[in-house]
Amino acid sequence: MFRVLSENERANAGNQLKGAIQYGDDSVVQRSERRIARLDETERIFGQLSKFEREFLRKNRNNIGWYDVRKDKTGSPYISALCADSYEAMVHQRHVDMEELLNEVKYLKKLDFLDLSVGKSGKEFEMPDTVKYFYPPGDASDYYIAGIKGVKSVELLDLSYCENVSGSVIDSFGNDYSIMYLSIRYDILREKHIKRLLEMNSFLGIHLRGDDGLRLLSREMLEKSVNSGDVSRLLNEENEVELKL
After folding, report:
1. Distances (CA, A) of 188 to 56, 164, 191, 194, 243
2. Are 204 and 179 in contact (CB under 8 A)?
3. How far is CA 63 from the centre of its chain?
4. Angle CA(86)–CA(28)–CA(7) in degrees, nearest 5?
5. Is the CA virtual torsion 16, 18, 19, 24 positive or negative?
């Protein structure tokens, strides 16, 4: 059973998450540690959700590792975060079959955190445009990412573990995208990709994953490297601030 967090614990967890995103500390938001403010299916909480949300959780409970419930301004609870997971994925390292979950996730109209990293991509799907933190299926491709409806509203997009993604996925990001931070592998980035990101008004930085850990490269650092012609050196530099995973 998951323990219900107190209001103070929830507030502290939220502040930690905001700080982690702002400063690139992935130790708080990495896939294996996203257990902030988990709630169990107690009658008090579960029973207050909408009928659709209750049925959604019941039908997909074998493929949901955890979910978070928050309250809106009127005091009504809603599902705010969802992480796909299963015993099969954890023990046998198999991708979760999320077809039914993905068919209905678009109806969770207040969802802001969606983690599908242990799932398999399958067909394209639609997620609500309220999702700000998104972790796509681990086998996702450039084409698959670009085809997800709702991805334009995502502010933190983590592609660092997606082996089938290339730097070309950045070419699909339009100026109407809301990406603030992008997590991605260092070996697939080129100067043209950096320049494309810098054309986006919302963009603030990259969480760059390499062999030695994770580095945050801010927009200012990237702009300076482009202007000085040192992008390659910056992307491969080993003595930048590394973040312990």
Report:
1. 37, 11, 10, 11, 20
2. no
3. 17
4. 90
5. positive
pLDDT in tens, 153-177: 999 999 998 989 999 999 999 989 9
Q: Tokens at residue 78, please?
A: 């809603």
What residues form DSSP beta bridges with 126? 149
Report the mean per-residue pLDDT for the chain: 77
Q: Report, as an integer, the average pLDDT of 206-218.
A: 81
Grouping H, G, I as helix, E, B as strand and the rest as coil, residue 66 is: strand
Pick the closest to residue 185 from 173, 169, 196 (CA basis). Answer: 169
**Token pair recorded at residue 206:** 């990259």
Please give the model's pTM, rounded to 2 decimal places: 0.77
* Model confidence band, residue 5 (pLDDT cutoffs 50, 70, 90): very low
Tell me the residue ranges of DSSP E strands in the chain. Answer: 64-71, 77-84, 113-115, 133-135, 156-158, 181-185, 205-210, 213-218, 242-243
Mean pLDDT of 97-126: 86
| Torsion region of 37: left, alpha or beta (phi above 0 gives left; psi -120 to 50 gives alpha) | left
